[in-house]
Every structure is written in C-alpha cells, then in structure tokens.
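This part of the workshop introduces the protein records we will be handling. A record pairs a protein's sequence with a compact description of its fold. Comparing a sequence with its tokens is the quickest way to learn the format. To make this concrete, we reproduce a full record directly below:
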Amino acid sequence: MANTKDAYVKWKEQGLLDAKLKIISNNYSYKEARGLIYNLLGVSEATWEKLKKRHEEIRFTIAEAKKLHEQLLLVSITRRAEGEYYEDTQTIIEVN
C-alpha cells in the first residue's frame, strides 16, 4: 500500500509550512471568505477540514488569528466610541 502524505507533511518537507501558516493567520484574522483560504492554500474544503483535525499547529494558528481579529474589533469599537472615524473615498476616472 502506498504511503500517502497529507498537504501539511508535503508543505513541511518542501519548506512551505511557514508561508502556508502565515496565509492562514492573515486570512483568519481579517475574516476572509473560507473559499479564498482554500484557494490560496491549494486544497479542497474536505482536505482543509482534515488538516485542521489532524494538526495542532494549524489549530493553534487559527486560534491565534481569531484572537487577533477580536483585538482588532475591540480597537475599532473603542476608536469609534471615542469619536474617531474613517472615511474612504474612491474616484473612478473613465478614459475615452
């Protein structure tokens, strides 16, 4: 029977694990769409769920990213309560 390696083990062997964990952290902390995370990691949803169950390092990265997301929300709420606001303006220029 062939010895199959999951994506985590392959990433580790190829030296890509840190980069993949950074992608997970960045996208979880800003609550990006899960489909985007799967796409960036190059795995299916089913594979992603298996990786989360099997590897503590992935679960830890997700937990830390969620904590960061909560902290960013608290900072944003506090700033808003203190009267600070952010205004974003976009200009679209059409060239004929």
About this structure: Helices lie at 7-14, 17-29, 34-41, 45-54, 56-81. Residues 29 and 70 are 8 Å apart (CA to CA). The mean pLDDT is 87.
